[in-house]
Amino acid sequence: MKIGELARRSGLTAHTIRYYERIGLLPYADRDRSSQRDYDASILSWTEFLGRLKTTGMPIRDMLRYAALRERGANTEAERRALLEQHREQVRTRIAELGACLLVLDTKIAGYADVEKRIDDHDARHFPPHKQPARTRQARAR
To answer: In the predicted model, is pLDDT for residue 133 greater than 70?
Structure first.
């Protein structure tokens, strides 16, 4: 697949794909007869995994380390696992921090809702709805 299709299917921009290739996160693509990049479909699972690592906040240097270990083969599985386990703990810590922040936001929002309800309740008790004025007849023309 060409770089445009890889960009469309992976959600990465063509610029990001070229950058990842240049720094070593993606392997260099084969080239077709006209020297255009020609990617194998198997690259999609790797780009998806890189996207997950990026979303979870893994620094590029750690992503590069993982990619280099992956390139070296099966004998690096223990190192790759350790790297992912360490990152998983960082993600769990971040999730706990975000959970605490979410609780504060929920509490604050609920406080505003309580204030609005108290104001509505107060207004209903002390300021009854206005009565409609009695209807008057229009004077007839003479």
So the answer is: no
Does residue 139 carry a pLDDT above 90?
no
Q: How confident is the model at residue 30 (pLDDT cuts 50, 70, 90)?
A: confident
Give rounded-to-5 percent helix, strand, coil for the chain. Answer: 70, 5, 30
Cβ 6 vs Cβ 47: under 8 Å? yes
User: Which two structure tokens, joined as six digits, stand for 64?
Assistant: 């590069």
Query: Is-contact 93 87, C-beta < 8 A?
Result: no
DSSP lists the bridge partners of residue 1 as none
Q: Cβ of 86: how many Cβ atoms within 10 Å?
A: 12
Kindly tell me if the per-residue pLDDT of 121 is higher than 80. Answer: no
Q: Residue 77: which residues within 8 A CB-CB, separation 6 or more?
A: none
